Structures are given as C-alpha cells and as structure tokens.
Structure prediction request, 283 residues.
Amino acid sequence: MQAKVETVKTLLDALPFIREFRKEIVVIKYGGSAQTSPELKEKFAEDILLMYLVGIKPVIVHGGGKKITDMLEALKIETEFIDGQRVTTKETMRIVEMILSGEINKEIVSLLNSHDAKAIGISGKDAHFIRARAKDFSKWGLTGNITNVKADVVLNLIKEGFIPVIAPIAAGEEMGHPGYNINADLCASYVAKAIGANKIIFLTDTPGVLNKEKQLLATLTKDEVKVLKENGTIHGGMVPKVDACLEAIDGGVHKAHIIDGRLEHSMLLELFTSEGVGTQIVK
Ligand SMILES: Nc1ncnc2c1ncn2[C@@H]1O[C@H](COP(=O)(O)OP(=O)(O)O)[C@@H](O)[C@H]1O
Ligand SMILES: CC(=O)N[C@@H](CCC(=O)OP(=O)(O)O)C(=O)O
Prediction:
C-alpha cells in the first residue's frame, strides 16, 4: 500500500510541471550519441509517449553522425569535420541521406509507433519545408546553413496529433539539387524557433557542458559560452550544440538544455523535477 501511495505522490509532484508545459511544443534533439542500446531507445520512446499523453507536443529532430561516419568508413570514403561540421561531398551526401532519412528516421518512427504513438517521419526535403544554402562550398561542400523553415508543415502535423520526427536534411533552391547536410543541433534550433517551441532539449553523451576539470556547468550565459569556446573548453561536437542553444533562445525559445541521453529517463527528470539535469543555457 505504501508503495502505491508513493506512486501517487510522484504523480502529484509532477503536476505543476505538467500544468506549465501542457499544450507547449518541446523540441527534442536526439543525438546519434544518445541512440545507443535497444534498452535506452525503449526508455526514450516511453518518455516521448508520456510527454505526449500529458498534452505536451513533442517534435523530434534526430542526428546520426556516428552511423554516417561508420558507413563512410565501411565504404572507405574519407570524411572530415571542420568546427564540428562534416565536409559533405556529393558522394558523402548520398550516404548522409541514406543513413539519416532512410535508416535512422524510419527506425525512430517505428520505435515510437510500436508504442502506439502517431509518429511521422519527414526531412526538410518534404514539401521543401527546410531550405538552405551552402555554408561555404569551397570549405564544406554540401553542408548547409538553413535559410528558411516553413513552420506550417510541422504545426499542421502537430495539430493533427502527430509527433513529427525530422531528419536534418534541407532542400536546395535549384531543380535536381542533391540537398544539404545540416548539423542536427542547428536544424533543431531553427525548427524550434520557427514553430514557437517553449523548450529545446539536446540529448547527448555527456552529463552536459563540462569545465576543464570535467565538472558539470549547470547554467551558462551567452558570455560564458563565448569564453569557453575561445579557450577551447568547448570544442568539437559541443560547438554547434551550444551555438544551437544560443540560436534558439535568441529566437524566442524560453529554455535550452543539454542533457545526458545515456541516463534513463533524463528528459522526464528535466521536464518534471525542479532540480532538472544537465546544462541550461540562458540569455
Ligand atoms: N566542454 C565540453 N563538455 C562536454 N562535452 C564536450 C565539451 N567539449 C567537447 N565536447 C564533446 O562533445 C561531444 C558531444 O557532441 P557530439 O559527439 O556531436 O554529440 P551528438 O551526437 O549528441 O550531437 C561530447 O561527447 C564531447 O566529446
Ligand atoms: C553538417 C553535419 O555535420 N551534419 C551531420 C548530420 C548528423 C548529425 O548532426 O548527427 P549528430 O547530432 O549525431 O552529431 C553529420 O553529417 O554528421
């Protein structure tokens, strides 16, 4: 009996947070580093479903950088990152699309739908809802910077009760263009801004942003991020992630969090407890 009372108490503790976020859009960036074991993927699906059932509107933007790199290695195609973003040749772009839109997107959609969610998978090429132009073609090739997101496409899906699952690929302007490879963190923040999300959560493979001593930094401001980037504490894949957080909050998203996707139910801990987890980036 006591255990049952505890369960009810836990539910009641979550009430203020459910009230706060009910009907709000929460964008979840599901990084390749957090898509590891089948058990963890199940927990991710449960968290999304719970959010959905209490009235939160989740939108998922996924990554898959590690799988892309593995496939390129298997095919003996060299790949390189500059400032945390992949250099994308035409050949690489085919693999990027195959892994992101073909494999990972469908896997996440199937996972959620096997839990009775109404997940629907799209990439920025669908209805050309994300458009981009080359970041710097001579340096990064077909890696793009987003120029426009048609919010209506995502908002209509949400209105119909779907959970949009978005692959970070954008349409090019010209006919027959192979499309652009978009860093998934930046894709998530542009989508979050465009659709008026309340919150954006980045699930990754570290407890959050760490200092040189590997301690968690619970809150960071724009100025602090700048210093940490300049002195090299924030490097590699964390660079586009913090940039994406700043992009989101500058664009009107209330809060941006970088949390540990390897920790079971970290999303629920972030949403439904006052302590939260990971790093919160504030204006
Ligand atoms: N200051 C930092 N704190 C935490 N992680 C950092 C930091 N600087 C760089 N990183 C690196 O960023 C990685 C997360 O980025 P990335 O591998 O691109 O993840 P994801 O696939 O989730 O986007 C971490 O695993 C870590 O190696
Ligand atoms: C331009 C660029 O770097 N695109 C990324 C897209 C996938 C991604 O961002 O995946 P994660 O979130 O798992 O790192 C790439 O090619 O790896």
User: Anything to note?
Assistant: The domain at 24-67+102-121+149-168+180-281 is CATH 3.40.1160.10 (Carbamate kinase).
